[in-house]
Design goal:
The complex is a heterodimer of chains A (200) and B (369).
Chain A: H1 3-7, H2 10-18, E1 24-28, H3 34-43, E2 46-51, H4 54-62, E3 66-69, H5 72-76, E4 84-90, H6 99-109, E5 110-118, H7 123-132, H8 156-166, E6 169-177, E7 180-182, H9 186-189, E8 192-198
Chain B: E1 6-14, E2 20-31, E3 41-44, E4 70-71, E5 76-77, E6 82-86, H1 118-131, E7 137-143, H2 145-156, E8 161-167, H3 175-189, H4 206-220, H5 223-229, H6 249-262, H7 267-279, H8 289-293, E9 299-305, H9 313-325, E10 330-335, H10 343-346, H11 349-366
Classes of the chains: A alpha/beta (200), B alpha/beta (369).
């Protein structure tokens, strides 16, 4: 069975392609542990997760994942330097209070960071904003502003500028629209971007 | 199922305090069947006032103290696992303690019983585990003082513990925890029937012991659970009595709990076991808790409860953070409950699911099919 069919979420499928067998993996905001459980089962990774929501932590334990209930940054603090090969932050960056601190922390505890986020530069978002004059609501950002967990609205260009500014090494980037991989005009067409970066 | 206590005898036990106890007995109960390869054993460690009767029904019809967690289809599933629980050293429910007969004098130890530690309790349990021919425990687990023992096991016998599940517990007793224990001890010592601890041929210090237990019960509940359970309701009266008899439900409850405790617990055991709890500090002689936990090889599942103010979540988080700083395999969850410290005994719905999944995973990883 294809990864995508098991995992459903396109970014999970891409992430699982980036991680080699037997790696040590930390998933920040691991949710119900689906990705880690899949990686454990299929890639024999040493998996750890951090999740804030109790119900999700319980589900992750149910999947046999080692998971810690707590705040991402608070929890990551206690891991030693370079404890992991890969640290994943999937669809959480835009909800994180201090994104730069989180990213730096990821590259402290891990050799590589994998970051997936929804692209606020997508044409639908731009169009919705332009046409309605309101905070954009699209299939990708379905929330009303007053209920949205998203507190940062970053685009692919924004993130790549940050990578350059911090002098991180961009190892790989992948763009997704639906289940389709994209190469052209990512900031306009991609719904989700996945980055693999490491320290300089 | 009616469960029978079982007993094992041991020649001697060298104690942390320097003395040696001789001719010891350990009382324990077991549930489920030990596999041929003895890889499915789970050691349950009881809290301060618990005993070996953790599950099933005893001859008096009394269910075990964790009967809601241990049994067929329960968190500690006795159809899959061999589950056993021993009364601790210093206890009064079958294992050698201050009320036991001193083999040298033929009389109860009383005040001559040596001060013991959590480490001593665990060393005696290890002798029982060896006697049963179990080389590696699938899990050690317990709440409160049972959690101290579980942690001590993981550190003292790292190769023997596949999984460690400390619940509502701490790696070292805090000033507040010591303080409550000391109030209980002083209530006992102040009872005129205490006689320096040598009261076994006389009336026991029942009043002091009951007061000690009343204090304990307050710490096991939460403000919210007390308000729900008792509020300011009066006991069998419509108006205040304007005297010092029982007015409030909560007074009645505490007095009842206190007097009930006297019938099943020994005042000296109260002193010795609370002292062992107060001495408990995994970090003693170590540079940090992380360093203290360094030898552990177990997978850990640490559970705390939101309303537990006796063993607050921050103490569990200290354990978890220390383990994570060495990248040990540790899962942590803080469960939501109004029941205070008692939650691990009474509010077991979510705890059951979590423990069940965690154990299944540990068994799968330890004993590949």
């Amino acid at each position: 069975m294809k990864v995508r069919e098991v995992l459903g979420r396109g970014d999970y499928a891409l992430i699982s392609e980036l991680i080699p067998a037997g790696a040590k993996v930390l998933d920040l905001g691991c949710g119900d542990g689906a990705l880690l459980a899949w990686l454990k089962e299929n890639k024999q990774v040493e998996a750890r997760g951090i999740e804030r929501k109790r119900e999700l932590v319980q589900q992750a334990i149910g999947r046999g994942v080692t998971v810690y209930q707590g705040d991402l940054l608070e929890a990551a603090k206690d891991f030693p330097d370079h404890a992991f090969d890969y640290v994943i932050l999937s669809q959480t960056l835009q909800e994180t209070l201090e994104p730069l601190r989180a990213l730096r922390e990821m590259l402290r505890v891990g050799r590589h960071a994998i970051v997936a986020f929804p692209n606020f530069g997508h044409w639908r978002v731009r169009l919705a904003h332009l046409v309605t004059g309101r905070a954009p609501k699209t299939p990708l950002f379905p929330y009303d502003w007053f209920e949205s967990p998203n507190i940062h609205f970053l685009t692919i260009i924004d993130f790549e500028e940050l990578i350059a500014r911090e002098r991180w090494v961009l190892e790989k980037q992948m763009y997704l629209a639906g289940h389709q991989r994209l190469t052209a005009l990512p900031n306009l067409l991609a719904e989700v971007a996945v980055y693999l970066v490491r320290r300089p | 199922m009616i469960v029978e206590p079982q007993f094992e005898k041991f020649d001697s036990l060298a104690l942390d305090g320097g003395e040696t106890l001789r001719d010891l007995t350990v009382a324990y109960e077991s549930y489920g069947k030990l596999d041929a390869d003895k890889r499915n054993a789970i050691l349950i460690l009881h809290a301060f006032s618990g005993d070996a009767h953790a599950a099933g029904i005893d001859h008096d019809g009394k269910p075990g103290w964790w009967a809601n967690m241990i049994g067929p289809g329960k968190a500690f599933d006795t159809e899959r696992y061999f589950v056993f629980c021993a009364n601790v050293l210093g206890g009064c429910r079958g294992t050698t303690g201050p009320a036991s007969t001193n083999p040298e004098t033929g009389k109860p130890y009383g005040s001559s019983f040596p001060v013991i530690t959590i480490g001593d309790m665990v060393r005696l349990q290890k002798m029982l585990v060896d006697r049963l021919g179990i080389r590696k425990l699938l899990a050690v687990t317990g709440g409160s003082m049972g959690g101290f023992q579980a942690l001590q096991w993981a550190v003292d016998y790292p190769g023997m513990v596949e999984a460690c599940i400390p619940v509502a517990t701490t790696a070292r007793h805090s000033a507040q925890q010591i303080a409550f224990n000391e109030v209980g001890r002083q209530a006992i010592v102040a009872d005129p029937n205490f006689h320096g601890g040598d009261f076994y041929d006389k009336e026991p210090p029942a009043r002091g012991l009951a007061v000690a237990r009343m204090v304990g019960h307050i710490t096991y509940m939460s403000d919210e659970s007390m308000r729900e359970k008792f509020g300011r309701r009066l006991r069998d009266k419509a108006n205040f009595g304007f005297d010092f008899d029982i007015d409030f439900e909560v007074e009645s409850y505490l007095r009842y709990r206190g007097s009930q405790f006297v019938g099943r617990f020994d005042a000296n055991s109260y002193l010795y076991i609370t002292k062992a709890m107060d001495y408990f500090d995994l970090t003693a002689g170590k540079t940090s808790l992380a360093a203290a936990l360094e030898p552990a090889q177990s997978k850990f599942l640490v559970i705390s409860f939101t309303s537990d103010w006796l063993y607050p979540s921050y103490q569990s988080q200290e354990i978890v953070n220390a383990l994570r700083s060495r990248n040990h395999d540790v899962t942590y969850v803080e469960l939501s409950s109004n029941y205070g410290h008692d939650a691990f005994l009474v509010d077991v719905g979510e705890q059951t699911e979590i423990v069940r999944s965690f154990l299944a995973r540990c068994y799968r990883e330890a004993v590949p099919a």
